[in-house]
Structures are given as structure tokens and as C-alpha cells.
Amino acid sequence: MSSDTTIYQDLRGLSAREVRMAIREGRYDRHTAGLAAGKLQCNLAILPEAHALDFLRFCQRNPKPCPVVGVSDTGDAFMRTLGDDIDIRTDVPRYRVFRDGVFTGEVTNITDLWRDDLVTVALGCSFTFENAFIANDIPVRHIEQDKTVPMYKTNVALTPAGVFAGEMVATMRPIREDRIEDAYRISGRFPHAHGAPIAMGDPADIGIADLNAPDWGDPVAVEDGEIPVYWACGVTPQNVLMNARLPFCITHAPGHMLIADVSETLEDQ
Amino acid sequence: MSSDTTIYQDLRGLSAREVRMAIREGRYDRHTAGLAAGKLQCNLAILPEAHALDFLRFCQRNPKPCPVVGVSDTGDAFMRTLGDDIDIRTDVPRYRVFRDGVFTGEVTNITDLWRDDLVTVALGCSFTFENAFIANDIPVRHIEQDKTVPMYKTNVALTPAGVFAGEMVATMRPIREDRIEDAYRISGRFPHAHGAPIAMGDPADIGIADLNAPDWGDPVAVEDGEIPVYWACGVTPQNVLMNARLPFCITHAPGHMLIADVSETLEDQ
């Protein structure tokens, strides 16, 4: 199996289903940004049913970082409300496996790890509003520079539920001052994809010490006339799951998302 | 205890907390329409934890009739994310109790029925967009005529989850043709309160035989130049709970809602 950029280019223009088939058959295991344009991409949390009610309560109480867009039946490997024939064991490019809160490895399918008590929770992702930004001529710096969006631990407390608690992880995108209002309005249209920003301006206000030293992803420069704007990030639930030290859980690898058949606006739902 | 219209008038202008205290202390047990203006009012489903995960899955899959705005911890009688000191056992004017799917009675508090395994799910309500209609000069006929909104069983299938399944219940409001677009846009701003309409026009399209014979509430006339418009209704989950024949569950009585401290736009969340 090879996963070079030639193959990424080959996938552009294919349908969500065709991309998932390439992933399922082991022909692609890299990031999904820009693939199956217009289709919803999802963060994933796969966890034992014993913790699923508390996790859904946690998501309900923290909808900006954890916007639920799909929940599987217990033990059902298919995400039936998000599309046709979406096998959660094979259709995501890369998964991360955690045991007792410790990251134990990244794998390209979880068929051998599947259990009858697992519940999959799919969460919206920032690709949705980034696509809307690009369509509205609001530049997205990390995409222009082919980097991963910078992500930061913040001091913004989350509302706990059972063992799930902690602080929000935020992404930062530099926005030109005259487009700030548009950026709030446009991302606000997508509550299922983190919605409007959580803050803008001084990173210290939300407990970020140094914008040039993100906790995940790559730093991007804030240019003259731009303001750093912060959004709730889908890494938050991963972080919270890890801190909860569940005996067993699985997430997607950042950037390696589930691509659904439903549209990213959810207008067909 | 008396509950006459004098007392309803006395409650107008009071805060959400003050209204809840009047209800808690047995001074008021009637409908909550128009009380604590601007505050979120909620439909309620109170059910054993054993069924809560499936019920939340059902709500996630059917967000128009079942928009979740709060979920209690198991056995916790307080709705901590919706306000301060909201005791779900006493702060709702009227409750309906169901055993094995059979309605067994309406009560004004559930203190003696409370159990350590109960989970309360709060769902948004159409009062939110009706208030926005009135603020935007879109008349709401049943309010003008001091009636209960007409509610109808439809043939719109819901996406099942576990024992929860069935068809959507819809409300109907006659809207003047030149305000239809506004009505869609304004209600669409409140996905947590049933959102945009599910249909408009011919009632037969969604399986309603006779607009003059609603299954719940009062009929209202559709005048010349008006079109009947249909919204998903918060009676849907009550109906689904009853059909699921749970051993035990409690709902609010229609129109007798929980009044939260958070704003009906959820902008303070």
C-alpha cells in the first residue's frame, strides 16, 4: 500500500463513497482535508456503552467543542444516519487507540478491535466552516500554507459530566480586521461544526501563553491588520476522553476524518 | 391553592426564578405561555437511566421534534445547566405520569415519585419562535385567539433508536403568503426550538386528514391569503415514550413547561 500525494490527487473529485472505498481497501490512509467537497467530515469517539450516556451528556453540555452529528447503535459498526454503508471499522484513514488513558498506537483499521459493546459518536469538524470561509473569500492561512491548523490548550473550563471534564482546546485562525464580523457570522451558521468563535484577540485571555508554540499542529503567523480568532476544537473530546482514563476507547487521528454522505450543511437531514 | 387568571396576571413580569417559586410553593399550576419573557421554556421527558442512552440517540436522530437543551445527571433532581436551583420535582406546573405506556394521572409535583435512577431530558419548545414571530409582526393565530396550538399526528416517519420509534407530531400555524419566507427564516434561526417548518400547504401531504380535527389542541381557521405551515412538535417525544411502553416515565403536561434561567436564544450558553 502506498499513500503518496499522487493518490491524494487521484481522490479529489471522487464521491464520499468512492473515497471511503479507497480507505476501506487500504489504498489511502492520509488526511481528508479537501476530499469529497461539500460532504460532512466528522471527528470520532468510539467508547464502551457503559460510558456512552455520560459522554453524550458531556457533549450536550459543551456543544461548541463537541457538536454531536451521529451516534451508532451499541455494537453496530455502521453509521446509518450519516450515509449508506459507512463501516466505522474500516472507512477512516487512521485511528488512535487508548487503553486506561494511554495512547497505545495508530492503526488503519479497527476490525480486530471491534467489540459488541462499542458506541460510535461522530462530531462535527471545522472543515465545514473553513470551506464556507474560502467560498466567501476569507483566506484560511494554514490551508494556504499547507499546514495543520494550530491547536492550543486553554483555561476555558468545560461543564463536566461523570468522568468527563477538563478545559477546552481551541484552534486559531488569523482574520483580517475587516472580515472579523463575516467570520463570526459565517461560522455561526454551523453550530454542528463548532459554530462562532469562542474568543478573539489577546491569547492570554483564554490562557494561551505563546501563539508560536501550539500544543498540536503548526504555528501560523498573524500578519499586520489581522487579529487572532479562536474556535472550539474537535481535539477537545479526544483530550477529555484520554484524561477520563477509560479502560478502552478509539478516536480518529487528527485530520484523518470520517467522510459522511450527508452534506456539510446538514440541509439534507 | 387557587390557580385562577388573576394569579396568572400576577406572574407576568416576574423573573423565571420567581415564577418557579410560585409553582414550587403550589401557588400556580397552569400554563406557562407568556411567562418570564425571553427565557427558555422546555418540554420534559423523565425516564429511567436504563432507557436514557437510547432516548438521547433517538433525539439526536430526530432533532426537529426532539431538540435536546439539557440532560440531568442520573438521580439528580436539579437541572444545573439550565439555571440556578431548578428542582425538577417541584418547579413544573403539571406533570403526566405513565406506567407501562399507560397515562396514569396528572400531578403538580413528583417528589414522592422521584427515584435515584431517573434522568431528565429537557427539549426546546415552540414558544421560542412564536415570541420571535410576534416581535417581527407575524401574527400567531392561536395566541391571538387564546387557544392551544393545533397538533396533528402525521405520516412523517421518525428515525428509530432502540424501543423509540413512530411518526412525527406537527403543529400548524396559518401564515400570510407574503410572510412565509420570513416565517421559515426566523424559525430556522432556532434549531433548539424545532427550527424551520417541516412542510406547508396541503395537509394530506403529511398524512393529516382534516385540519379542523386536530389530535391535540384547538382548531384555528386558515383565512384567505394564508397558507397552513407545519412545524415539528414537542408532543412527538411524549407520544414516542408512551408507545415505547416504558415501565415508568414522566413528562410535563402540554403547555405547562419548565421555565429555565437561560435565554430562549441560548446566547448566554
Short structural description:
By secondary structure, the first copy, chain A, is of the alpha+beta class. Chain A has two domains: 5-125 and 238-263, PSTPO5379-like (3-Layer(aba) Sandwich), CATH 3.40.1640; 127-235, PSTPO5379-like fold.
Structure report:
Chain A is an alpha+beta fold. The first copy, chain A, has helices spanning 5-11, 16-24, 49-61, 127-135, 141-144, 180-188, 235-243; strands at residues 39-48, 68-71, 95-99, 102-107, 118-123, 151-157, 167-176, 199-200, 226-232, 248-252, 258-263. Chain A folds into two domains: 5-125 and 238-263, 3-Layer(aba) Sandwich (PSTPO5379-like), CATH 3.40.1640.10; 127-235, PSTPO5379-like domain (PSTPO5379-like fold), CATH 3.30.2040.10. In chain A, 22% of the residues lie in helices and 25% in strands. At the A-B interface, helix 3 and strand 2 of A face helix 3 and strand 2 of B.
